[in-house]
Amino acid sequence: MKQIVLIVFVALIGLSFQAKAQWAVIDPSNLVQNIQQVVKSSSTLTNMVKNVQETVKIYEQGKEYYDALKSVNNLIKDTRKVKRTIEMVSEISDMYVTGFNKMVADPNFTVDELAAISAGYARLMEEGGALITELKNIVTSSNGLSMSDKERMDVIDRIYNRMLDYRNLTRYFTQKSISVSFIRAKAKADTDRVLALYGSPSERYW
């Protein structure tokens, strides 16, 4: 967990831990291309692409830390929560890139609505990235090392629960955004096309 310091400490103890969780791989390039095809306003386009780039930045920040954790043994009982907190950044990023990519291709949304949705996702990603930074400071800094185990675990629990809230909020935000398209499609008797785009509720992971 504690990167260099913890790696050395774990090496002395000699415990073993194998990370089994998967880290989703996102490809924002297709999303950017779709945004460029749909959005004509240069300012709106710039803002939406900037949001995607910020998502990738936060995603890569989390992945870098996640990769470091994979090589560290399971020293203390809160390791799983630390790892799970970081994995949720990947889930949030994946919901954003996958879900929003479909919304950009959906004629039931206006450009202004897409810009607002993009800003909402960017805000969620920003808050998630701030939690990752806070988590890294707790588990890698001298301040984190000076805390008692209970104090450190209490902070980790708080960060984990907040990240879980953001993950769930991202899912809710995605579902509610898509529901707007379903309502509009139903009014136009065009639900089959929307279902083909997003899949049925049981088929969608968000």
TrEMBL record:
InterPro entries for the chain: DUF4141 (IPR025415)
Keyword annotations of the record: Signal
Any matching Pfam family: DUF4141
Extent of the signal sequence: 1-21
Organism superkingdom: Bacteria
Listed name of the protein: P-type conjugative transfer protein TrbJ
Protein source organism: Mariniphaga anaerophila
